[in-house]
Structure formats: structure tokens, C-alpha cells
Prior knowledge:
241 residues
Amino acid sequence: MKKRNALFLISLGLLFVSRGAYIFAKAQLAQILLRRAWTRTLAGAPLARPWPWADTTPIATLALRGREFVVLEGANGRNLAFAPSHLERSAMPGGDGNCVVSAHRDTHFEVLQDVRVGERITMRDRHGRNFAYTVEEARVVDKHDRWIAMDRGAPVLTLITCWPFDAVTAGGPQRYVIVARLVRARLVRGRLVRGGLARRPADVSSGGAMAAELPRREDVPRLAGGTPAHHVARRQARSAT
């Protein structure tokens, strides 16, 4: 009986390991095919599908902490299995609004747990334009919280993944969110120079207008010093229970 139970547990463990390895391998292979499609996109191809039956195309690349991912259009379950995906209703990279990108916590966005405040995240659009964002904050929210995709009153990038990162089962009720603001760019003698954080004209003329448009931040787990963002969010969540 004990031997039978041991064999069952070993088989179950191998099943979980092999499934995890399959998901990881699929995500990595997909990025190779997506990168080829991205090369065609930059060359001007209007619909560069990564594989013949795909109903989506790459719209950008996302670079952070030494890694770069191709981003697909449409944040649905099918696309998320292969790559970080852009929420269709949100702003495009570099656009005036909230650009929302999501991915799984155990593949492409596993890197988010090490992102720190002040770090730069770069997106490149299909026209070859690069947009730099500076990480400002992180928080853990309910997956139904509409704050995630709302307009923040300035050009921002919102990255979303499941939380906690070490959860045994995927698709829990909480999401880990990182917000980064677009760095303003200006042309000086023909060269693109990065300046301060981008703001809408209304932010300058109306003083505190932007603060009124932003959601309440009293409960936002701020990133202090060099503390990894997910450590701050985890402490905040534990103190609330």
C-alpha cells in the first residue's frame, strides 16, 4: 500500500513538472516565431502573423531588466499563452493614455517581481519608435478592479500579472500591477533627448488637476529605496489580513 502511494505521488509530481516544462518551452519557442514576425512588421508588413493560423500580430516589443519580449495585440487567454499581450481598449505604446500589457507570472512576467522603483522600461512600436517609461509604483489589486485600465491623466504603462508569484495554482483573485510613466522626449539638434516625466498640457496649466484625476493612493504600496516591488506589496497585503 505504501509503495503504491509513493508511486502515485511520484507520478503526480512528474506530471506537474512536465506540464510546467511544456508551458515554459511553448512560451520560449513562441518568442522565436514572434520575433521573426516582428522583423517583418518593422519591415512594413501589414499583417505579419507569427504562424499561419494566428489571429493576432505583434504590435511592439517590451524591454526590462535585460530581457526583451514581443507583445501581441489582444490580451486574451490564447495570446497570453505565447507572449505578453496588449489590452486592445488601452493606449498604444507612447500614446496619450494608459497602455496596458499583461502576461503570466510564471513565464514572461516572472521578471516583474524584481523590478524596482526608478527603473526604465522601454517599448518599441511597429514604426521603430522607442518609448522609455520610469517605474513609479506597484500594488496588489482585485482582478475585477477597474483601476487597472483607467486613464491616469498622463501617458503611462501598466504591467499586469497574477499574484502571488509563488502561488501553487494560477488564476487567483489578485493581480500584481506595476505603473510606469512615459519619459518626455524632445528634439535637440536632430537628436532625441530624454527629459522629465511626460505630462498632459492640462497638468501644467491647472496645477493640481492631475492629482484629482488619479485614483486614491492612500493604500498604494510604494516602493522605497531599492526594495523589490513585490516585497512591498506582499507586506501590505499581509498587514491587511
